[in-house]
TrEMBL record, chain A:
It is found in: Cell inner membrane; Cell membrane. This is ABC transporter permease. It is a multi-pass membrane protein. The chain crosses the membrane at residues 12-30, 67-87, 99-120, 132-153, 174-207, 227-255.
UniProtKB/TrEMBL annotation, chain B:
Keywords: Cell membrane, Membrane, Transmembrane, Transmembrane helix, Transport. The keyword Protein transport does not apply. It comes from Mesobacillus maritimus. It is a multi-pass membrane protein. The keyword Acyltransferase does not apply. This is ABC transporter permease. InterPro entries: MetI-like, MetI-like_sf. Belongs to the binding-protein-dependent transport system permease family. CysTW subfamily. It is found in: Cell membrane. PROSITE patterns: ABC_TM1. Residues 66-272 form the ABC transmembrane type-1 domain. Pfam families: BPD_transp_1 (PF00528).
UniProtKB/TrEMBL annotation, chain C:
This is ABC transporter ATP-binding protein. SMART domains: AAA. One of its GO terms (molecular function) is ATP binding. Residues 4-234 form the ABC transporter domain. Keywords: ATP-binding, Nucleotide-binding, Transport. It comes from Mesobacillus maritimus.
């Protein structure tokens, strides 16, 4: 038991280390001073008010939301179809296919960024949104494929067979049985897809230009050149938003388990 | 008559098209560009020459940068391993009802934007930051430490970014371990440390290998932390590649650096795997 | 009338032959049990009839209609699974209504048919529950209702009782027989449990190594197993290796020497002039109490008691016989008085010559 306590003691410090940067950002966001100074001068919600009402982060925020949502709308069905094909059909290519679809996780995003930059400038694609969208879909697909393969693997195949035997076509079976049963995995995939896409910075640095900024880009440039308290406020809002979204996803999955 | 296409290929088709178009093809372009020529005026000329690679390997500036990147990757992996093992072991051996909340606590940073986390580290590490203020107030130091724009600062922030990956991989292995093995060993008279050294540690080896490989691979090409915490003073491969691409527009050289980075990653990881494997086989014979 | 016919069914997975040129005819309204150990090809055969797998070659006919070319969801075959395979996200009512809706049954009809079907499995009160709220036995009855509500001609059972405990297994087995009388379907029932097969099957097809080894009524299969495998698989058996066959001792019987030098008489069999094993069912053996020896009618064997177990309905005695490695098993049923044997005590047993089978 004694050693166990030493482990716990050390772990308390590691947990502090893990949470410190997030807590520091959140605490800073309530500071009355305009620039980040410690200890805080006072407590105020003013910076949140400013961030929400005034423009600096508004447009990038909506750009990022739009990007994350459209990315998810494409990557979720495409990734689910891939995972379904790999999990439910026997093929000697399945191992190769799985590695292929997971490989964007292995290859550094930096390289994909340069490659795509070269490609789009060769092809003369000027619009920033489609450029980013395509790259985001590629980055997100492996998360969806991996989560959905795990989801399908945990699902009893005979339930789908029962549906077919009872007269439902394979497509009907997919929508009437497979999708409802895969709901927890779909929720997890959707959540991951939204978060990964929303937070993606590197691709945006390479592929976008004047007129189209994503929120991580704006924050990135402000962290470099403009460390203000309103930056802490928008960052805190993102932290809260991610946690809420995560809790919501976990909650919805829990509900599904009970019935 | 057309032969019927099997259903699974119809399901796979959209994914294959997207990945070919926006993944395989761009990476192919990158590879081809790494053999292009950059003229003295900075223009890019299609060619098949090793100019970019020669430039990289004949300049100690770049070689030192590559070495620094590998060094940071190794140090970060090692620190993450130690800290991650403590955490994963602690979670796996705590009461089941605490496990999920603790794992979520660790995964939480993974899900919040890395830019924001590094922002937090800047607040903590800067010259007038929290850490220096506290340490000076406590009379532990008298002069503020220089952590921002140093390799140490980059390593601290990188460990924070990578730790969740390590914990999740290690936890999966330690949690799957049969607790009875540990009980059996202590019944046989081994003390806690010996039980851990001879039983727990060897069994968790696959997790250790997988975790360190994962952390090293991600760290080597990680851009955000070196850029924000290291700035222009700590030049690593990732930041230099970005510089070459965006600021200097020397795409062939950036491409070649990218290819070198990828190959370095493959070489280091396979050497590491090989070293561990031969040790394992040696122990067996 | 022939309902289902399997002709030369052959199935290979890679280079492994799982079902090897299997032929089988199932008559209308009968329940046929496919019985065999795991890996004998019985489940693969069933899933080929259901259409979950396609035979490498051969054909499956349902009422003279080629079934192999019909998509699985258009076959009108029922299938009851081992793990129930209910839809966990649908209520009991919706589970049973699922097939009706897929077959375009009018809404007005669905309610009545579902309720009638649930009533026939004694689950009328449960239509609003979800599968997770039911016991294993109840879940399997819902699965039966879900299958039978479509009134399929052919119902396939894939070890539907093996996840249930022993008592429930028998009760539900009998219920399935009664449901068959009510709904008049033809059944193919796959199991590895011989008691289940005896209880449910009009006929039993014993499978081994991808083919049928014996096909017959439960009585035929039990009384006259065609080989030691079937004998061993169905019921208990004593298999004694033969050392030496002495032919022509008499015209009707012949004498055989088994290992250990014991002599045993068997009915002469022209078909098997060179047998290697003798088989005796433990329950056809009696303990010799008086000293009446009738060697024209009986075989005798003497050994020492290794153990004696009382099971409530019978005694099982294991006897150590010289020269024979495995204990010789004797099962004594319907005892009017208690048996008293101590370990190592000498014991002589007898059984009818006609109950001695050779292979």
């Amino acid at each position: 038991m004694k050693n166990f306590k030493i482990v716990n003691f050390v772990n308390v410090f590691i947990y502090i280390f893990i949470l410190a940067p997030l807590l520091v950002v959140i605490i800073s966001s309530f500071n009355t001073a305009e620039y980040l100074v410690f200890p805080p001068q006072g407590f105020t919600f003013d910076w949140y008010h400013e961030v929400i009402s005034k423009g600096r982060y508004t447009q990038p925020f909506w750009n990022s939301i739009k990007l994350a949502v459209v990315t998810t709308m494409i990557a979720l069905p495409v990734g689910t179809m891939i995972a379904y094909a790999i999990s439910r059909y026997k093929s000697r290519f399945n191992d190769v296919l799985q590695s292929f679809f997971l490989s964007p996780l292995v290859i550094p995003t930096l390289l994909l960024g340069i490659g795509l930059l070269i490609l789009v400038s060769n092809l003369g694609v000027q619009m920033y949104f489609p450029r980013l969208l395509l790259a985001h879909v590629v980055i997100v697909i492996p998360y969806v494929v991996r989560t959905m393969i795990a989801g399908f693997a945990g699902m009893d195949k005979s339930i789908e067979q029962a549906s077919i035997i009872l007269g439902a076509s394979p497509i009907k079976t997919f929508f009437l049985v497979t999708v409802p049963l895969a709901r927890p995995a779909l929720l997890a995939s959707g959540f991951l897809s939204l978060v990964v896409s929303f937070d993606e910075l590197i691709i945006a640095l390479f592929l976008t230009g004047p007129g189209f900024n994503t929120l991580p880009m704006t924050i990135y440039s402000d962290v470099q050149f403009n460390l203000s308290t309103s930056l802490a406020a928008i960052s805190s809002l993102i932290i809260f938003g991610t946690v809420l979204l995560g809790l919501l996803a976990v909650l919805l999955m829990g509900v599904n388990k009970k019935s | 008559m057309l032969k019927r296409i099997p259903a699974n290929w119809i399901l796979l088709a959209p994914g294959i098209v997207i990945l070919l178009l926006a993944f395989v093809f761009p990476l192919g372009r990158l590879f081809i560009y790494s053999f292009y020529k950059t003229t003295s005026s900075g223009a890019i000329e299609p060619a098949f020459v090793l100019d970019q690679y020669i430039k990289f390997f004949t300049d100690t500036y770049y070689l030192e940068m590559l070495w620094r990147s590998v060094y940071v990757g190794v140090i970060v992996s090692a620190i993450c391993l130690v800290l991650g093992y403590f955490l994963a072991y602690g979670i796996a051996r705590t009461k089941p009802k605490y496990r999920i909340p603790l794992l979520m606590l660790i995964a939480l940073p993974l899900l919040t934007s890395a830019v924001i986390r590094n922002f937090g580290w800047i607040i903590i590490l800067s010259k007038k930051g929290i850490l220096n203020e506290i340490l000076i107030k406590l009379n532990i130091i008298h002069q503020p430490m220089e952590l921002m724009y140093t390799v140490s600062g980059v390593i601290i922030a990188l460990v924070h970014v990578m730790l969740p990956y390590m914990v999740l991989v290690l936890y999966a292995v330690i949690d799957g371990m049969d607790l009875n093995l540990e009980k059996a060993a202590s019944n046989l008279g081994a003390n806690k440390f010996k039980v851990w050294w001879y039983v727990t540690l060897p069994i968790s080896k696959p997790g250790i290998v997988a975790g360190t490989l994962l952390v090293f691979s991600i760290t080597l090409s990680y851009f955000i932390t070196p850029s924000l915490v290291g700035g222009s003073q700590v030049k690593l491969m990732a930041t230099e590649i970005e510089d070459q691409t965006i600021q200097l527009l020397n795409w062939p050289f950036a491409s070649a650096m990218g290819v070198i980075l990828l190959i370095t990653m493959l070489i280091v990881t396979s050497l590491y795997k090989k070293a561990l494997q031969s040790k394992y086989e040696g122990a067996n014979t | 009338m022939t309902e289902l016919q399997l002709k030369d069914i052959y199935k290979k997975f890679g280079s492994k032959v799982v079902v090897n040129k299997l032929n089988l005819t199932v008559e209308s309204g009968e329940m046929l049990c496919l019985l065999g150990p795991s890996g004998c090809g019985k489940s693969t055969t069933l899933s080929m009839i259901a259409g979950m797998q396609t035979p490498t070659s051969g054909s499956i006919m349902l009422e003279d209609k080629e079934l192999t070319k019909v998509a699985p969801h258009k076959r009108d075959v029922g299938l009851v699974f081992q793990n129930y395979a209910l839809f966990p996200h649908l209520s009991v009512f919706d589970n049973v209504a699922f097939g009706l809706r897929r077959h375009g049954v009018p809404k007005s009809e669905i309610g009545d048919r579902v309720r009638a079907s649930l009533a026939s499995v004694q689950l009328a009160e449960f239509e609003d529950r979800f599968p997770a709220q039911l016991s294993g036995g109840q879940q399997q009855r819902v699965a039966l209702a879900r299958t039978l509500v479509l009134k399929p001609k052919l119902v396939l059972f894939d070890e539907p009782l093996s996840n249930l405990d022993a008592k429930l297994r028998q009760a539900l087995g009998i219920e399935i027989r009664l449901l068959q009388k009510e709904y008049k379907f033809t059944g193919v029932f796959v199991t590895h449990d011989q008691e289940e097969a005896m209880l449910l099957g009009d006929r039993i097809a014993v499978m081994n190594g991808g083919n049928i080894v014996q096909l017959g009524t439960p009585k035929e299969v039990y009384k006259k197993p065609v080989d030691p495998f079937v004998a061993n698989f169905i019921g208990e058996s004593n298999l004694l290796p033969i050392a030496n066959t002495d032919l022509g001792t008499s015209s009707e019987t012949m004498e055989i020497t088994i290992l250990g030098g014991h002599k045993i008489k068997v009915i002469a069999n022209d078909n098997n002039s060179n047998p290697s094993k003798v088989m005796i069912r433990p329950e056809s053996i009696e303990v010799l109490v008086d000293k009446d020896i009738d060697s024209e009618k009986y075989n005798y064997l003497t050994g020492n008691v290794a153990y004696i177990n009382y099971t409530g309905t019978s005694y099982l005695i294991g006897i150590k016989v010289e020269g024979i490695e495995k204990e010789f098993l004797v099962r004594i049923q319907n005892m009017t008085e208690d048996l008293h044997f101590s370990d190592e005590e000498a014991i002589t047993v007898k059984w009818k010559i006609k109950d001695t089978l050779i292979y």
